[in-house]
């Protein structure tokens, strides 16, 4: 809490108390993330594999005014030198680590919102994978996050102080990554008091060694990781018996692969990617025809959803704002894969 309030004091010091966007990445970022939103700011997170030009696009599009990460993107994004801070223990080319300027004397009180304000005030702006055109900012309000937390609590994953969870930092932006890129998961882990082990990237040997060493019992993974665990003989060298729960996301999990995993490890995988299953609390859905009529059983149509955790809006400075009220349409989307990323067909053709 001392560091949290120190960070809020830092935000006040650089006069960014309103309309603050902050870009950050690394394992200790909760201090920055929680401090920023408590101080009345907004946070936009970026894929850790982004190059400088890719990151600069998001910085410009989101209107970020403080950068925690890549100094190289600052010139193009026109962010003032002293507003660029590093997740590092050392100063690099004049850029200071954010911890070096934490000052308890600058502590301030958190910003408090009314029940109506939390429904409309943006807390986070992650960016989509952009099926069509450039990536879009997804504005999530404080209510979106809190509602999703309550919904996650309904899913009994048996999390508690004895839980030890492991995830990969670079699994996938915003999709289903433990702790670092999924805000609701981030808060839920804090809420339950679990221990979190984070690997900077995926290496099968390190992955299995960590499970054995730290007695991991909950895993967040992607289908590609599940495939490695099933097919690579290296896995047999390690004791993975501590694992009792594995959640898969970021891409569809093949049914056959799920069965193979169960046959080998006797653990059922929770697939968090699909839009089929029992609805969680406060979610309403209906099936509509293309002309807007509600359909009955076994009739093909569009799935429409209404829930308190649905985004405030989707936007980009290069496109019109996309706002949807009441029910949101969940369209079928066809993706192509390139270097482990979803790519719109348009990008591949060009």
TrEMBL record:
<comment type="similarity">
    <text>Belongs to the ATP-dependent AMP-binding enzyme family.</text>
</comment>
<keyword id="KW-0436">Ligase</keyword>
<dbReference type="InterPro" id="IPR000873">
    <property type="entry name" value="AMP-dep_synth/lig_dom"/>
</dbReference>
<keyword id="KW-0732">Signal</keyword>
<feature type="signal peptide">
    <location>
        <begin position="1"/>
        <end position="17"/>
    </location>
</feature>
<dbReference type="GO" id="GO:0016405">
    <property type="term" value="F:CoA-ligase activity"/>
</dbReference>
<dbReference type="Pfam" id="PF00501">
    <property type="entry name" value="AMP-binding"/>
</dbReference>
<feature type="domain" description="AMP-dependent synthetase/ligase">
    <location>
        <begin position="27"/>
        <end position="273"/>
    </location>
</feature>
<protein>
    <submittedName>
        <fullName>Acetyl-CoA synthetase-like protein</fullName>
    </submittedName>
</protein>
